[in-house]
Amino acid sequence: MPLGVQYIGPRAFAQSSVRLIRLPRSLQKIDESAFEGCAGVEVIAPQDSYAFSWCLEHGIRCYAEGAIAQILFSESELTVKNGGSVSVQLETLPAQVPASRLAWSSSDEVIFTVDQNGVVFGQYPGRAVLTVSAKDGGVSASIPVVVQANYRAVLFSESTFSESYGGIYRYRGHSAQPRRRPPDEGDAGLRHRSRRRQVYIVRF
User: Fold this and answer.
1) What is the mean pLDDT of residues 117-141?
2) In angstroms, what CA-CA distances link 85 with 30, 88, 165?
3) Selecting from 1.20.1250.20, 3.40.50.10540, 2.60.40.1080, 2.60.260.20, what CATH number does the domain 70-148 have?
4) Which of 57, 85, 138, 147 could be disulfide-bonded to 122 (CB atoms 3.0-4.6 Å)?
């Protein structure tokens, strides 16, 4: 509402589709039926104002002016590669809320972690939930995060492997599974055929 308004009359917002209303400090009277038919409406007003007190007394959800009133994610689900990272995009009210006013958390830090700037780091394939909340209380929002496995096809000779465990080979600290193995040769035969080259799937 415009600054300077002093009175809100009967059924002023009746059947309105507006869900968030900003009321000025100048308001001195609000009619008892002003918000009739406005289920779910929310109000922003100066905390020490008549409008703020009136809303609290009449059961209307009211946020102090300057407080974070809304947090929305730009996506319905967030996807990140194992070992990768992605910055989370938010829409807030008021706009451009500084990161210092938000708290970020992961429901399972084995799957992903998140720093206090809203950057998500994939740790292990799976699903978990990211939650961001206003440090001054009031609002929060959550979004599912999917961490996808990061596989690469690598071509090299078997002599690059130093040891094997039941068909899983170690290569520079990563585990690799051969796509195929020569019949009847077993792990030892595959490991020592140093001139043969194959494609291995290596998980990073």
Assistant:
1) 91
2) 50, 10, 31
3) 2.60.40.1080
4) 147
Residue type present at position 58: H
Contact 62, 45 (CB under 8 A): yes
CA 83 to chain centre: 17
pLDDT (average), residues 34-49: 85
Q: DSSP letters of 34-76?
A: TTTT-TT-EEEE-TTSHHHHHHHHTT-EEEETTS--EEEESSS
- Asked if residue 86 lies in contact with residue 114, where contact means CB atoms within 8 angstroms, the answer is no
Q: How far, in whole angstroms, is CA 107 from its chain's centroid? A: 11
User: Could you check whether the bond before residue 94 is cis, i.e. omega within 30 degrees of 0?
Assistant: yes
Q: Is 62 exposed, middle or buried (0-12, 13-18, 19+ CB in 10 A)?
A: buried
CA dist 177 and 169 (Å) reads: 6
Is residue 201 within 8 A of residue 153, CB to CB? The reply is: yes
Q: Provide the pLDDT for residue 67.
A: 80
Structural domain spans, the chain? 7-64, 70-148, 151-203
* Among 173, 165, 172, CA closest to 191: 165
Highest mean pLDDT among 39-43, 69-73, 79-83, 132-136: 79-83
